[in-house]
């Protein structure tokens, strides 16, 4: 739902500034879809290289990747009101981005901990294998990098997509 809301809200903001074109829907969808696909690839590669065998399905990972859109929608919406459609720039836009990013990263850190760092006696660890200290440390580092660095890049990419100030397919100042 947040994925579709992000696409519609970006198009609405472009329309309110008189710059709506149908291509904006496709451009916004493509960017958001690429972000979700890249995020899933990062999660699957992390699970593979760190030898994490969890019970989480692809739907769980897609659901976790969708939470970033709530923060992006909030940032884009508030920035559109306070910055007159000039993107995330300004103290208000970056302040809202900082808050929503940190809230999302903290949520992912706490939630994915149970997927990437199962305790030795949980039902998700049926073989009761103990996780070596070095392996647990690498998993913790991956979880931190994924929750903060990767999410920052993806959320910044989504909020930096400016569909309200330029006309898609035409050069500014051109005919």
UniProtKB/TrEMBL annotation:
Transmembrane segments: 28-50, 62-85, 91-109, 142-159
Keywords: Endoplasmic reticulum, Golgi apparatus, Membrane, Protein transport, Transmembrane, Transmembrane helix, Transport
Gene Ontology cellular component annotations, sorted alphabetically: COPII-coated ER to Golgi transport vesicle; endoplasmic reticulum membrane; endoplasmic reticulum-Golgi intermediate compartment; Golgi membrane
Membrane-protein topology: Multi-pass membrane protein
InterPro entries, A to Z: Yif1_fam
Predominant cellular place of this UniProt entry's protein: endoplasmic reticulum
Top-level taxon: Eukaryota
Compartment(s) where it occurs, according to its Swiss-Prot or TrEMBL record: Endoplasmic reticulum membrane; Golgi apparatus membrane
Keyword Endoplasmic reticulum: yes
GO aspect biological process, one term: endoplasmic reticulum to Golgi vesicle-mediated transport
DNA damage listed as a keyword: no
Functional note: Has a role in transport between endoplasmic reticulum and Golgi.
Family assignment from sequence similarity: Belongs to the YIF1 family.
Name of the featured protein: Protein YIF1
Organism, scientific name: Extremus antarcticus
Name of the encoding gene: hrf1_1
